[in-house]
Amino acid sequence: MTPAIREALQFCPNLPTLPGVAIRIIEMGRDPDVNIGALAGVLSKDPALASRLLRVCNSPLYAKRRSTTNLHQAVMLLGLNATMTLALSFSLSEVYRSSNTNRAAVDRVWRRALISGLASRMLGETLKQNALDELYLAGLLQDLGVLALSAAVPNRYLDLLAGYQTHDRFVEIERETLGFDHGEVGAWLMRHWGLPERLAVTAASVHDPNQADILEDARAFVYCVSVAGHIADGLLDEQPQPALDAAAAGAATLLGLDEQILQVLIEEVVEGLPELGRLFEIEIISPNMAQGLVDQARDILATRNLRLIHQVTDHHQKVVEMEQAAEILQKAAIHDALTGLHNRRHFDEVLENEFAQATDNGWPLTLGFLDLDRFKQVNDTHGHVVGDAVLVKIAAVLKRNLRERDYIMRYGGEEFVVLLPGHSKKAALKVFERLRTAVEATRHMSETGESFFITTSIGLASHMDGEHHIQDPLQLVRAADRALYDAKRHGRNCIESVLS
Ligand SMILES: Nc1nc2c(ncn2[C@@H]2O[C@H](COP(=O)(O)OP(=O)(O)OP(=O)(O)O)[C@@H](O)[C@H]2O)c(=O)[nH]1
């Protein structure tokens, strides 16, 4: 919260206030020795509140065989906690009622609060939590900050409130515009009123229950209220799907409850709303719409799994496509597009690896460069397209004349490189001679149908050549390159080798 807003809250003359009797009740709540008689005494000071409490006791929620006619009996029947919670919630309804800001929006927030309170309590019951009355109150209070902000900064806040469509979007807008949301302000007001700290912490963290720094034992409490808020939105929003999705996701990840349990719970919440509405004298949801909302929620939750499966399948499909694209790119990165042979980049890696193995194991290794002779003439005479076709054909011929574990790569232009692991220079010479004659014997065709031939010069170098040992891959490359130069110098279409 910004200092300016804090100041506006502190000095706001219209800040929502609790009736005196509610303040007394809060004080009594802090007293471990509070007794029924004393509480009944305080409640009797507010006749409207007292009569509402009696109505609760005689409502189907609590009614026993005998009707309850006096406050003492009512407090006995409800228990201390429930009495205090109900008394506070009735006081709170007065706070909402007396708010003289945007009525429609405040009504919406109050209806959300009532549904959240009921749903929080029911979630707590499902999860066998013990502080059910407090959970109900926490649900009811979670949007109290809206009232406080409407009173403290009406000019700025009422414009925001006028645009209220869904709760989650509203929280986002608050954060974008004010830099904080009403949860924080609600927590401030609860502390100001002296309400139990757990209620304030819940309001402050309910919008981001995952990220909030909540003590371990308060987590389930906050999570129930957060999921309850989404349930309330699922029943109030015109487009309920996002809220119900959020409710289902929260129920599953935060509370470990599946869609079926959530659906039953929503039905129970909707069943309990008319009674709750009577107690608070407000129509929370129109009875005509109630069944439709339950059916809608059932459809959304039932198809949620299907939607999730589709999403996962789509996601999986995308991952597969990305992997395929990455594979294609990786292949392209080490292959020559024209001939399909590996390229120089791959050669560098292979040479490094084979050289290390040959050195470590004392194996022979021979490398040869093959450079087509007077290839420029081919291009000049027959054009580039025919030149390309020659390169493709020669690549295939070279490959065909080598073993599976020999390497052949296009080094660049009209130059190929062959690496023969396990071949001494003597053995390699035979292989290169075979390659040379195969190239020489290959017939090529011009675009006009004339056939022509091409030859290759070859320079080779061996890793161990008699007494001479080459120290690193680069030296081997340089030695083969020098040999190739010699072959060109000695008239082409021949093989030369050099000692290192
Ligand atoms: N068609 C085609 N030509 C290429 C390709 N890459 C390189 N060349 C050509 O290959 C020719 C190489 O010419 P030079 O380096 O002068 O060598 P050369 O004509 O083969 O003569 P020597 O090597 O001395 O026998 C150039 O004309 C390049 O344009 C290619 O991918 N396709």
UniProtKB/TrEMBL annotation:
Protein's recorded name: diguanylate cyclase
EC number from the UniProt entry: 2.7.7.65
Residue ranges of every copy of the GGDEF domain listed in the record: 363-500
Pfam families the UniProt entry points to: GGDEF, HDOD
Lineage: Bacteria, Pseudomonadati, Pseudomonadota, Gammaproteobacteria, Chromatiales
Naturally occurring in which organism (per UniProt): Thiorhodococcus drewsii AZ1
Catalytic function, reaction form: 2 GTP = 3',3'-c-di-GMP + 2 diphosphate
Top-level EC class as recorded in UniProt: transferase
Domain of life of the organism encoding this protein: Bacteria
SMART domains referenced in this protein's UniProt entry, alphabetically: GGDEF
